[in-house]
């Protein structure tokens, strides 16, 4: 079992996506956030369940998809860091993922 740690930028990403969705449908926004957190909770026991993002040549990051979002994470020992959340129809900018 690993400890799941949300980074502040990832929480800000998720908050911005939820805010945008909430402009039209607050129930859908809340449901999306809950679904993402449920999906992330599974990573504590199964940290390798995510796929490798096709855009990246490195195997340092993994992703889970909870439509309409992609959630990027990396594992460092017994800790798993959620580093970025984005809408799945957008193109991943590698600069959004931490170098370290």
Defining key terms:
100 residues, alpha+beta, YaeB-like fold, 4-stranded mixed sheet, 2 helices, 4 strands, 33% helix, 26% strand
Describe this structure in words.
The protein has 100 residues and is α+β, with helices and mostly antiparallel strands. The chain has one domain: RelE-like (YaeB-like fold, 2-Layer Sandwich). Helix content is 33%, strand content 26%. It has a 4-stranded mixed sheet with strand order 1-4-3-2. The longest helix has 18 residues. The chain is globular and about 40 Å long. The model has no long low-confidence stretch (mean pLDDT 92).
> Whole-number average pLDDT?
92
* CATH architecture term: 2-Layer Sandwich
Topology as a string of helices (H) and strands (E)? EHHEEE
| Beta-strand percentage range | 25-35%
Structural class: alpha+beta
**Net shape:** globular
Give the oligomer, counting copies of the same chain as homo and different chains as hetero: single chain
Question: Quick recap of the structure?
Answer:
This protein has 100 residues and is α+β, with helices and mostly antiparallel strands.
Topology:
Layout lengths: L2 E4 L1 H15 L3 H18 L18 E5 L2 E8 L2 E9 L13
Parallel strand pairs: 1-4
Antiparallel strand pairs: 2-3, 3-4
